[in-house]
Structure prediction request, 829 residues.
Amino acid sequence: MAVTGAAGSGPEHLAPADVESLGESLRQATEERRVVQVVGGGTRQGYGSPPPPDVVLHMSGFSGIEEWDPDDLTVTVGAGTPVSELESLLAGRSQTAVLPEVPGVSTVGGVVASGVSSLRRARLLGTRERMLEVRLVTGDGRVVRGGGRVVKNVSGYDLPRLVVGAFGSLGVIYSVCLKLWPMPPAAATVVIDDLEAAGQVTRPLAVLDDDGVLRVFLWGTPEEVAASSARLGGVTTEGHRWPADPEGRYRWSLRVPPALTGAAVQRLPDGWRHLAVHGAGDIRASSEDAGSAPALRDWAEGVGGAVVMVAAPSPGVDGFDPWGRPPPGLDIQRRLIAQFDPARVITPGRLPGGI
Amino acid sequence: MSLVDDLRGVLSEDRVLEEPVELYLYSRDSSLMHGEATCVVFPHTTEEVAEVVRVAERHGVPIVARGAGTGLAAGAIPIDGGIVLSTTSMNWVEIDVANRTAWVGAGVINLDLSKEAEPYGLCFAPDPSSQSACTIGGNVANNSGGAHCLAEGATTSHVLGLEVVLAGGEVLVLGGQAPDMPGLDLRGLIVGSEGTLGVVTRALVRLLPIEPDVRTLLLDFDRLSGATKTVSDTIAAGLVPAALEIMDQKMTTAVENWLGAGLPTDAAAVLLAEVVGDPEAVEAEATLITRIGKDNGARHVQVAKDETERAILWKGRKSAFGAVAQVSPNYYLHDTVVPRSRLVETMEEIEEIAARYQLDVYNVFHAGDGNLHPLMAFDASDPEMMERVHRAGEEMVAACLRRGGALSGEHGIGLEKRDMMRADFTELDLDAQARLKEAFDPKEIFNPAKVLPEGSRCFDFGGVRREIPDGAWL
Prediction:
């Protein structure tokens, strides 16, 4: 196990190379009640309000493809594998894991643990629907597998989906098996003037609002793509160029019922940037200040949604909970997590309700 | 007060059954196993379910929730006494057209939901073969699949929220129309938990737009490998057809003898493929599949000319199990999965196992996702034959696991396969699963003895052990 930081000057940095040493690190942390932060690409560390870590676990040692037979539409991959690396490998055989399109340095494990999804989610669904198998090490060092390496499986409780968006609270994910999707031969992007026009295509791959520019993303056989773009009638370019989530001092995730995606965009305060996934109710936004966030959250929670603070300059906003209204079933969530991380060492305080 | 009196206090008298013939009926589902019910209750509301849960806890009697009883893994039978809670009276449907969702009572029949949604141009994607009888509550409990799984995902991909009654009668509404609701995804954990974590009373489901056009193709082959290679090549070409179903010769013959639909009984395998979408899309995709099929030795490719022809082709597929009932008094239907690249060799081994046990095996399967349904015909009045069926079935499951497959793709574990879970999972894996159960249901009120083998919780020496009684199998 590589020790990359010096004791006494902030947290200890560890990069375990195998499951045994990962387990040993966690067992020790539980014994000594040390707070562990798990880092893949480090792009999603802004959620919740965890205390400063005593130990930082880098997952770079769990990188690479473990198993991939293109005919099976599954890939098993180490959690520390960069998403961009996985997707470019899969693209070589015209497949995709349908993970975020502009991942930067994000890793597969980080995307799964933080529960972020592809911009193609209105058509191909989110990251949780990719999950077939998960392998993790619990807070007290037990090695656990759930699910299996086939595209369809109902054997036992659905641990693979439960870890999506759980921020490692059930254990440190070190390997996942994902359901792949074949990429058809043709792709095009069409700029449209108003959202109504998108209704011309029954189930487009994506309809995105990128700071006011509306684009429909199409794919399929050449005949289908040509017919769909003709029906939409806007300016068409071949292929897909996916926009990145907006950047700013504050980053936000708005989640609303799908039909209210446009309404949510209209309610964004002046000066906020946005990337909205129509049909999915998923709006990624950024701003330079947080003054209008409480009013936006009141509206979103009133329609059954949420406004989550994804990143903020330290130390956050006074009296503004990063997650908002606590979700139902906090007691049962605590009991579940206690079964997997009994001393609550893996980023306590990361989840809603201060869990 | 007795259990039944207490239950009649919270429900009306006629909604608590305890006559022997009623108990007999509700001690079975569509599996080959049976149990023993103490009484059967029919709550109408979520609050009544909560009351039943509180009464059950007071008396220390378990609750087994039940929809239509079409389950094949003995998930809905009370093993040694218990309250069977029928969800069939909870049959509300509330459609939100703009958001393409519906709140649906647990007792609503799967096909009825799609019929209710049809006037709005919407449908519910999961379509198990039992869809004209099975309920949404049962689909949620078993994370049911169906022919359209590969393209659209199983039930869990279509459940956005749940109303559920937990231990102590606590009612939670989980998830919602908005995506990625903060906190642990309890909704996702309850889907597929086979009624062991609580009782689901309503589900918020995703509805899909009915596609404007559809093409259904029937391709027949001299060799099974031609059919499976057509499936692989179709997907490799970038298509995910709405359905890719294969029937072997024995099954095709049984269906043809029953339906007379004009199926090619001399083919080694027939492939039913369906593509949906805008008219240009289905035309191009049907042409492509036809070409790929012919490249792989398809003798004929029949494209359904109209809705009547399409309905006949599907009727053949969906009534396959009924057709076997014409041939033999009983059948045992397995449900396993292998990686798709290993389909042909697995099928060959299944044939070999059946031959070794002198049994007739019929095959129909979801070829797109490697989900096998070997079906053994037998006569239950012959105990020696029954024993052979069991042993052959266990070998078939083992053959799939050995190839990196799964115990069950869509039917569930229930009582039927719980003791096989050890073949797939380690002690620590099963312990983790048992901990999930314990966090929800520490007193084991909800559907005890299902899914996990006894003793799954490591280091746990307390509690009642529930072995499968000797007479539980038919």
About this structure: DSSP finds 16 helices and 20 strands in chain B. The first helix of chain B runs from residue 3 to 10.
